Amino acid sequence: MVTDSKLQQLFHEPIEQIKYLDPGYSGHASDVWLVKTASEEYVVRSSRWTEAPSREFWWGIYDLFGIDPRRMCYFEANAAMLSSIADIPVPRVHTHTVIEATEYLVVEKMNGKALQSFVGQSDALLHQLGVWLARVHLKRCDYFGNLACTQIERQESFHARLSQTIRQLVERDYWNDSKIKALLDAMILELGDLPMPDHFCPVFIDLDPSQFLIQDGMLLAVVDVEAYAVGPREFDFVGLEYVLDEISATSFLNGYSTILDPPDISNYRKAYRYFYLLLGVQGSVDLDRWFAQQALFRR
């Protein structure tokens, strides 16, 4: 654990109080502290990783998109992109500092409380989410990789590279899961036959309500943005089918459609769901149960 003396090096004023913020789930990329000085409160973020990622989610993101959770430049680049979208604020980065080979970000403390679920929220909040995501998707890219530009690859090679990542994920982490292994070759063949998506943009690989803060019934901020990558916007819609229901999906689409027509994900759903299962975006889930999830976005 980082010592108080290290955190003090990040501030000109004496630190009065430090509180470790536990996200409540395992596998998160960053240690996060709430730091109070005499004049203000800040949030400090630092990577929990000392070696390259080797398992499921972060290895898959590292391999396909080049996002290294040991480095803070990805959070910084993602926050810079999101700061241009007024609908839902993102914490402003105050400083990026290296102490004893470890990177630290001092960022703005945002008010509000963590959102527990999108299901059951008001039409207004879900409409707000849809408008915000569509505005993110307006930032089209002619490559896939990451916003810090440490890895940029041609769109045309996306499915071939995705296939490589999928195969390695299965061989590394699911060698003893007979159902996942049995489906691997069929998924690789399916990816080879799929047309290349025509809309690449920033996508939130672990899009989940816990990444957002809520206040007075509306989304106040998006705070955990390490895993923003550049890929097909279909990824976000595939992920959303696991955190919305029919009612919330309708309100979300009403907002999204004011900015962009939503994509038709019917051809991509199964292969992309398979990849998201391997990443463990919703934890460890049985394959049959994962594929049985209701398809919410249909044409």
From TrEMBL:
Keyword Lipoprotein in annotation: no
Pfam families: APH
GO MF term set: transferase activity
Keyword Transferase: yes
The Aminoglycoside phosphotransferase domain, residue ranges: 26-256
InterPro entries in UniProt: AGP_Transferase (IPR051678), Aminoglycoside_PTrfase (IPR002575), Kinase-like_dom_sf (IPR011009)
Name of protein: Phosphotransferase
Top-level taxon of origin: Bacteria
Gene3D superfamilies named in the record: 3.90.1200.10
Keywords annotated in UniProt: Transferase
